Amino acid sequence: MMQLFAALALGALASAGDGAADLVVRDGRVWTADPEQPDAEWVAIMDGRVHSLGMGEPPAHLIDEDTVVLEARGRSVLPGLIDAHVHLAGAAEGFALLDVRGAASREALLELVARRAAATDAGDWIVGRGWSAESWPDPRAPRADELQAAAGERPVVLVRMDGHSLIASSRALELAGIDAEGPADPAGGKIGRLADGQPDGALYESAMGLVDAPSAADTVEGRRALMRQALAQANAWGLTQVGAIDSRATIEQELVPLDSAGELTLRVRATVRDAGPTLSAWSRALAWLDRPRTLSPNVELLGFKGFMDGSLGSHTAWMLADFDDAPGNVGFPLALAETGELKTLIDLAADRGLQPAVHAIGDRANRTILDWYEAIPVERRADLRPRVEHAQHLAPEDVGRFAELGVVASMQPYHKADDGRYAQTRIGPVRCATSYAFRDLVDSGATLAFGSDWPVVSADPLLGLAAAVEAGTLDGKTFVPEQSLTLDEALTAYTRGAAFALHSEGWSGALIPGYVGDLVLVDRDLFASEESLAEARVVATVVGGRVVFARD
Q: What range does the record give for the signal peptide (predicted)?
């Protein structure tokens, strides 16, 4: 390990001599994700790609004085982990926002706001993210006036952890022109109101856009600086490739320039989001996407992100029947889904060879998007690999349709640890039986691609693995353990499955000679440890044979 840290201090790997590898990991429990050779004890990387691997000791000629050697000492070595669903811009912005994830009650949340207010100039905004009231002793979110009292003269916006609703202070609502007189609920959104018509501070889905809070960084260089922090954090979690669902501006102004400067330490497969609430706006976005898909060596365009509905936590998931705890409410489809224009957009994108990745949480949202995908001609559908993002709550008769239609179930297992605290209250035990249906989907032959939805939750894949395998929830209970996977199956969803979803299989997602030299060293043998997978930590992350993260 001393040689590893010496190489890091120099800032780059030294070139290997003839026949020697750039990097060798030895004495490991190597899980390769290759069914033909599932296990190994050493891996050699040369010229950025896996050169060879095997059991026992690596051949002596692979190691010379310039080779970086990682001593695994019986610990797990994995292919570079792939997160099929992140929002890099949001993750980067999170480093500058008020983090309220730790608030265990309404009072604790208001105290965090008051502390930030004490360090914020009067009139300046306080913007935060991450609250969730479901586990609070009293699960009522703060009203607008309560937020304002905590913040003094400062406008406040706090986005819920799922990103599908927010709470705004009285001053923030005033600046947005929201009062008892209006405006009316926008298409695909809702303004929370008290009995007298006054806004209570809650804004749902598209209504969130009515409040124009300032961004965390107002310059391109400021945003790039935050993005560097996000990249470093992703590498520390063992991520080597991501499906980045981000705006055109983020892709063009941050990711591509960072890659050109040699600072992009992830392989990015980009999906464009947030083009606008109208079909005409998306048509312009499709025109932008109609270009060579390789934007830089490590940034590739895949397609577009659409939305069917909202979230379970915000009661905006589109369900086939009422929420158990909100009679008369079945959620709702979002703007383009409600008008059916999203189907038109999917067809337009399919004609251009662009992969659709559509958010669907509720069982009705999932059924509808599967119906729309089924209308795509079979051969074109096979080429596109359409994705359902989240696929959280499925009607039993729809589970098998993913495999039948060749639709990728792009799911985020750590969401299960959160939603599992309150899902039975929301939709009852019968519908929960096919919530987060990992087991049923795998058994039916569907492709399962795992990710996180970062920054909605942590992108640490070890937390995701724990949720998928152990079924634990954030409050120490379990949720639908019958849908759990084996560790091998869950790792496959973070490697080969995610690579398939991102059209990067055949060169990534496994440790196979000729594949990219991306790998992760963990601090224990994951297959032998009796502790929770959530207790494990990444020791080193390698991208293309270069160590991009090493734990002291």
A: 1-20
